[in-house]
Design a protein that fits this description.
By secondary structure, the chain is mainly beta. It has no helices and eleven strands. Strands 2, 4, 5, 6, 9, 10 and 11 form a seven-stranded mixed β-sheet that branches.
């Protein structure tokens, strides 16, 4: 069973930076981050494979960097040049092995990121 524990987030002014971290237990494959703003659907922010290949939402390319440490089972999202439209609850994501040896999608508890203008 995979468990995800997030840290980071908070309130920052536009143009500032924040760093989110997530620690995973268990056997995991892809990891990454999603976000959900009020009244909107959850959307992909960034995802990173075990080999380090990353994919980013167009809206964050060039500003956010997703990285992982496979030895520690951690994933980090460095967010720079933050904009008010980045305000959302950010969720850590992992694809991992669960009951019966099958793969499942797992989610962290969510952490609030608020960017003031």
């Amino acid at each position: 069973q995979v468990q995800l524990v997030e840290s980071g987030g908070g309130l920052v002014q536009a143009g500032g930076s924040l760093r989110l971290s997530c620690a995973a237990s268990g056997i995991i494959f892809n990891m990454g981050w999603y976000r959900q703003a009020p009244g909107k659907q959850r959307e992909l922010v960034a995802i990173i494979s075990t080999g380090g290949t990353t994919n980013y939402a167009d809206s964050v390319k060039g500003r956010f960097t997703c990285s992982r440490d496979n030895a520690k089972n951690t994933v980090t999202l460095q967010m720079n040049s933050l904009k008010p439209e980045d305000t959302a609850v950010y969720y850590c994501y992992a694809r991992g092995v669960g009951p019966g040896g099958r793969e499942y999608d797992y989610w962290g508890q969510g952490t609030q990121v608020t960017v003031s203008s």
